[in-house]
Amino acid sequence: MTLPRRSLLAAGASLPLALPFIRTAAAQSPVRFCLDWALQGNHGMFALAEDRGAFRREGLAVRMDRGFGSGDTAVKVASGAYDIGYTDVSTMVKFNAENPDKRIVSIYQVLDRTAAALITLKRTGITDPKGVAGKRLGAPEGEGSRMLFPAFARVAGIEASGIRWTSMAANLRDTMLAQGQVDAVTGFLFTTYFNLVGLGTKEEDIVAWPYAENGLDIYGSAVVARADWLEKNPQQAAGFVKASIEGLKMLIAEPDAGMAALKRREPLFDEALEKRRWAMTRDRSILTPAVKANGTGAIDLARAETLIRVNAEAYGVSNPPKAADMFTERFLPPASERRIG
Fold first, then answer.
1. 5-113+219-337 domain in CATH 3.40.190.10?
2. Burial group, residue 57, by CB count within 10 angstroms (0-12, 13-18, 19+)
3. For 270-325, what is each residue's pLDDT tens digit?
4. What is the CATH number of domain 116-213?
5. Is the Cβ–Cβ distance between 329 and 1 less than 8 Å?
6. Which DSSP letter does residue 203 get?
7. Which SS3 state, helix, strand or coil, does residue 306 take?
8. Residue 85 in 3-state DSSP?
9. Are 49 and 243 in contact (CB under 8 A)?
């Protein structure tokens, strides 16, 4: 890990809890869990954890619901509609600054790298990120990858002043790129890439530069919960994280089983496509060098602070939260249990 663990997350000050948590023989605790979007391949880790009893072994009865976007999930967790959520941690910076009494905390960082990316097609002639200077870029107004683009442009050396932005609904972004109405888009790589494939684009024609692999190395989606809920339910939080990690290991070892578990929940789920989406997610955002070295869920405080800083700049937040108030390793099992890949 980049920083010594003792410098990590004095989040203990934010969440004054003691470890280890003692498991009792009490009845299973109900946990309401909200995903970030409709079922996708990486969600198989939670489906397998449920189907194979990992949550039950931790004394949890988990109800998993689809989400409608990371921002929506964060609001639902903060409101108490759900106990735990799976959301992009960038959405939490502005929310926590504006709602300190409903502060959300990342308790298990699943995606070690954000999926935000700059994406184009070969026919545009753009061969590196700097090539988008003066071009037409598209993304929904206010969408996370677009808001973070100025920070990415700085680290990637992109002259952004001449870029012409086109705003559109999220479901039209990839169609407009495929039709040539924009030269490039910003979005989540795993979403846009496979949407383009679904529109008939040849894979060899898709060109992408993930922010995290090109200078803006920040975290992606995580298991999150409200700080006051964590104070009252430390055992449930630790059990959920442990079972989720078990589910991730199952999904890595048996991707077909993970896709089948999701298909049982959603008959229209495309197992073949989502297996490929899962493989890209695994290789680009989960099995990163940092995870291979430190185990899944480990937090580098410097990277956490970078995420907070660039989001605060993007959204005009003058009082950003502290990293120790937004990230914690307190609910993770020992590093020996977090080795994956």
1. yes
2. middle
3. 999 999 999 999 999 999 999 999 999 999 999 999 999 999 999 999 999 999 99
4. 3.40.190.10
5. no
6. G
7. helix
8. strand
9. yes
